[in-house]
Structure formats: structure tokens, C-alpha cells
Amino acid sequence: MDTGEIRPAVGDTMTVEPSHEAGGALRKREIEQAQLSQIVAEMPRWQRAMALGGEKEVAVYLDLKSPHAYLAVRPTLELAVDFRVRLNFLPYTLSYTTLGVSKSVDADMQRKPVDAAADRKARMYYTTARQYAALQGLPFRAPYRLLDSELANRCFLFARTQHLEVPFVMQVFLEGWGSGWREYELESLARLRATLSTIGANVSGLKSFVGPGGAAGEQLRLYATEAEASGCVGVPHYVLHDSAQGRELGLFGREHLALIRTKLADDGLARRPDTTPGFSHAWTGPGTEA
């Protein structure tokens, strides 16, 4: 009987053999494209996870210019696969100033750190992301310039109106972070519109929705206020009702997924008897959990 559950995709992996005839750079590109195709092929699984529904909501705040938000989407979806929860992905636009990252750039738009400590912080931020992206098989390059994600986050809200927020953010993340934003213009409405079309969205009304005075601006401000009220200091930011404490709980970072899973298990929300709350921060993909 089909219960609607999504079972872990054990064995659903791909081994990519580089061409012996191609040069080193071409072989690398072939492998990257195969990895990208494999990730995009998960899209139906993402949508099934989002459609499962559940008895408790977990809000997940993301910013499209954050590499750590990129890393969080797929492991976060496993919450809906394993527990009777509804995932509510929402945009939150981070401030470079609040993060302590310099907004100063030189003539060719390269970042100018305030000092050596700020430079080390920024470099570690991307070095860590690169390591975890490799574990998940996600393409990743550090950005060559500062990013403005306001418009992209408004388009995120537009995708939500058609229940396509997860395919949208992942398509943007994959194309953007895969090239270090050298081949994807995050601030371009034309490029964002093309991405929406790629994932099957109806783009009628997009410009008025995301433009000045459109619904997206006010919604984005509202979600920012709600996120900050729950203690948001960065993304991914998770918010759920903590039954043990009887209040809303906000948590920053995907390293808290195991804690969230433990709380959901304690609430008796596991979809299957063999579901375990343990979850590795070094998760490598569906069907690879210990």
C-alpha cells in the first residue's frame, strides 16, 4: 500500500567516470555537470517532501546570498521526510554590516576587508562552506564580489505563491554558488525570471509583485520582523514550538538539525518506527545517513 511516505533513497547515487579523451579541465567540468544534474534530479523528491504536511510547523529562514543557507536546504528537507512536520521556507535578507563583513570594494569590485581579522573571518566563512559543499556533492566557488539579494528574495516570495520555493532557491543556489556568481546575476530580474520559468513557474505578474510598492517588499519586511523577534542572527534560522518549554524556539545553523529532530521524536512525530533523531552535520545526501 502506498502510504505517501518518502523512503530514503538508498543506493540512488551516481558514479561519474571522467572521459579519458578529454583534458583535465574538461573532465572536471563533466563531473561538475553530472553532479549538478544529479542534484536537480532530486526536485520531485523535494516537492513530495514539501507536500507531505504534518502536525507541527518548522519555519526555515534563508538568504539567497548565504552559502550556509545553500548547504542547509537538502538536509532540512529530511525533517519532512522523517517527521510529521510542515516546512515553511522563508526569505531573510542578511546585512553585511551586521555580519561584520566589509561593504567596501576596490575599483574592480573586489572586497576590501576592514582589517586582517575581518579578512580571516570572511575567508573562514567560505572555506568552511566549500568543505561541506564537497561532502554533499554541491558545486561551490567563493563569490568574486559582494551580493545584493533583496530582489532575489522577493522572487523567492513569488515562487512561494506557486509552491515552488524549494526548486527556485536550489536552482539559484546551484547556478550561483556553482560559479561563484560569475555566471549568474543575482540582481537581474531577467535572470531571476528565467530561473522561475525553468522550474515551471507562471511568471505573469512577477514585475509588479517584486517591484516598488509590490506585495513582496512588505512581506519581506514582515518576515524579517518575525525572524528577529525569534532571535535571528544569521541563516539558516529555524523556528519551532518547543513542547518541553512551552514556547517558540529559534536556532541558528544547520548544526542544530539533530536537536530539532530529537525534539520532534520526543513529540512522537516520527513518520516511521525506524526513524532515528541522530543526524550528521557532515551529511552527504539522501540515503547516506548512518
State mean pLDDT (0 to 100 scale): 88
CATH superfamily: Glutaredoxin
Fold-level CATH name: Glutaredoxin
Q: Strand arrangement, largest sheet?
A: 2-1-3-4
The level-1 CATH class = Alpha Beta
Order of helices and strands: HHEHEHHHHHHHEEH
Oligomeric description of these chains = single chain
Compute the number of helices: 11
Distance, first to last CA: 27 Å
Strand segment count: 4
Descriptive notes:
This protein is α+β, with helices and mostly antiparallel strands and 290 residues long. It has one domain: Glutaredoxin (3-Layer(aba) Sandwich), CATH 3.40.30. It contains eleven helices and four strands. It has a four-stranded mixed sheet, sandwiched between helices. Helix 3 links the parallel strand 1 and strand 2. The protein is globular, with a radius of gyration of 19 Å.
Task: For the structure shown, list the relevant keywords.
290 residues; alpha+beta; Glutaredoxin; four-stranded mixed β-sheet; globular
